[in-house]
Amino acid sequence: MIPQSFIQDLLNRVDIVDVVGKYVQLKKGGANFMGLCPFHNEKSPSFTVSPAKQFYHCFGCGAHGSAIGFLMEYSGQSYPDAVRELAQSVGLSVPEERDRLPPAQRAEQQAKSLALSDAMTRAGEFYRRQLRGAPTAIQYLKGRGLTGEIAAQFGLGYAPDDWQGLESVFGSYRDDAIAGPLIEAGLLIESEKRDADGKPRRYDRFRDRIMFPIRNTKGQVIGFGGRVMGQGEPKYLNSPETPLFSKGTELYGLFEARHAIRETGYVLVVEGYMDVVALAQLGFANAVATLGTACTPVHVQKLLRQTDAVVFSFDGDAAGRRAARRALEACLPYVADNKTIRFLFLPAEHDPDSYVREEGTEAFAAQVRDAMPLSRFLLQCVTEEQDLRQPEGRARAQYEAKPLLKAMPPGGLRLQIVRELAEATGTTPAEIEAVCGLGSDAARVGRFAQPRARARRQAPAGLEQRVLQLLMRYPALSARLDDDARALLLDADTGGSEVLAHLVASCDALQGEVNFAAFSEQLAQSPFADVYANVRAGVLREDIDEEPATLEFDAAIAKLLVEPLQRELTQLQSAIENGTADEAGKTRMRWLIAEIHRRKRLG
């Protein structure tokens, strides 16, 4: 876990205008900067970046956040990855609370990571240069219908048919200091055989292959895929697992496809590097591919950070169906009622590239639109080989469905699948839930079990919402709340507001100069994150100076205090009417009447 104090320090050091400006063309407009929103299509700019608040906000689609949030939304990075990228840009090292490595060892690891990253970058440049002078490789790519522009966009290259080709870039492989990082990066292979002087033989892993650089979400080369141009095995050779590269977590083409994914509203997952590049050439720039391995849950998480709709494309043969089944299993923990996952099965004689070239882009787009929903594919998987006319077949279908349904989070989609499975097997949804062990979860969403009462937090409204906005913008205003105001407004025992009490406590705890973006990130980690997100949106829609904000805050607090005072007055008046009030109560009542009138005038 990254300490909150570090987040505040980091956001005090970075300038969100510089961060966003790397990806969006910004122009000065008054106190803020304006540009076209990168998160939805628009012709006139509604995307603003505030240097004062260190926040971005789009008045068109509502997207907003800090520099950390922008990197997460734009690049699909996780929170820790976005923090690390920002920290690296200002020369900071992220002090993770679980990290127990001594500083010297941590620095050594960082140096090694930089050396590997530099090696991959230089190797990629070498392969690209080699492609320019390799007519056979150029002819092969042209034969696949690729242009020089698309090859440059994906950074395609060529590894020459040379056992020591990279020596021209890095120096002699006999030097351990040179060869070490190249071996660890997967660019060289060290043989068990040795030369006469006892040195191990080292040679290039990739030879006479078209080279596909694999980039992470920041655009850095972390691995390669090499494809033979004629006969040879393996057809594709990938980088091995390294400190930079893990096949089970990376997707080829995701960096290049991120803009097209947003524009089209979905990501297309295919099986090979060449499919990705060829589809981009043919107008489907939103395609990505797994790296010669089955789709993993991490892949699915990455995809769903980019978009709410995923289409997997597989061959229609037995191998394609097996790969689709593995993808289905990887998706199940992350399905949601607002996400769409579908499966496209092309005719056995086609891959996406050949289908588009033979049938055309419109025909392929129609195939994508008609792709099989996850629900139908799941039901097909568990029923297609069973004889549902027989009890044994129906029972087997339920048996096959059990681990799949249990892997899904409770929600509307799982409920619908349960209903369809019940109909197909001649049972009731409640019986399916019982057989599959879903009862405890189903109580939250189904009508087949009694739902448990759930406490609901009331969203702040009116004056309280405004006070929250003013406090979030100017936390120092919390100092204006006296003891009486705090007792009446913040104490839960007297009906005070939980969220207001939390925000006031957070404001009180701040020290030194307050950065709005850093404070917002801190609040986003609290139990009231959903409430604060709505409050923050209101803050971003206006610019209010501190002096008028202070006057408005005092007036709003005065009005808010009238309600608890009025409640106490009503109770005392009832006591006087019943003859149970003493002299102190009568004195308190007279003070309350005057105080309520005074506060109403202030408000």
Automatic annotation (TrEMBL):
Cofactor(s) needed: Zn(2+)
Cofactor details (free text): Binds 1 zinc ion per monomer.
UniProt keyword annotation of Cell wall biogenesis/degradation present: no
Catalytic activity: ssDNA + n NTP = ssDNA/pppN(pN)n-1 hybrid + (n-1) diphosphate
This protein's record includes keyword Protease: no
Superkingdom per UniProt: Bacteria
Domain Toprim intervals: 265-347
Assigned EC number: 2.7.7.101
UniProt xrefs under HAMAP family: DNA_primase_DnaG
Family of the protein in this entry: Belongs to the DnaG primase family.
Quaternary state and interactors: Monomer. Interacts with DnaB.
Name this protein carries in UniProt: DNA primase
Annotated source species: Cupriavidus cauae
